[in-house]
Write a structure and sequence with these properties.
Elements (H helix, E strand, L loop, with lengths): L1 H21 L6 H21 L5 H24 L5 H20 L3
Length: about 110
């Protein structure tokens, strides 16, 4: 169950980062509220996952899901650039996440 909590926490990190961008520096009410609620839920699920997962593994995977997810959302929905170098960077993050999962005792 901890891995499910962790993946959900990472996906919520993508949600809050996207809505933070839409909040325009917390000047728009609805995106600001979604940002804060998604942050709280993400941190809560991360805390649940950390009950049984090692700190380094849980935190790295949480931030990795958020980083790669935000990268994808930026390209797909915000018109950010898609270059081979940026793609390689995202793939290296994913490779690191896979290695962490494969070497985890949980």
């Amino acid at each position: 169950m901890s891995w499910i909590y962790l993946v959900l926490a990472g996906l919520l990190e993508v949600v809050w980062s996207y809505f933070m961008k839409l909040s325009d520096g917390f000047t728009r009410l609805l995106p600001s509220i979604v940002t804060i609620l998604a942050m709280m839920a993400s941190f809560g699920l991360l805390a649940l996952a950390m009950r049984s997962l090692p700190l380094g593994t849980a935190y790295t995977i949480w931030t990795g899901i958020g980083a790669v997810g935000a990268f994808a959302v930026g390209i797909l929905f915000l018109g950010e650039s898609f270059t081979p170098t940026r793609l390689l960077a995202a793939l290296l993050i994913v490779a690191g996440l896979i290695l962490l999962k494969l070497t985890s005792d949980h």
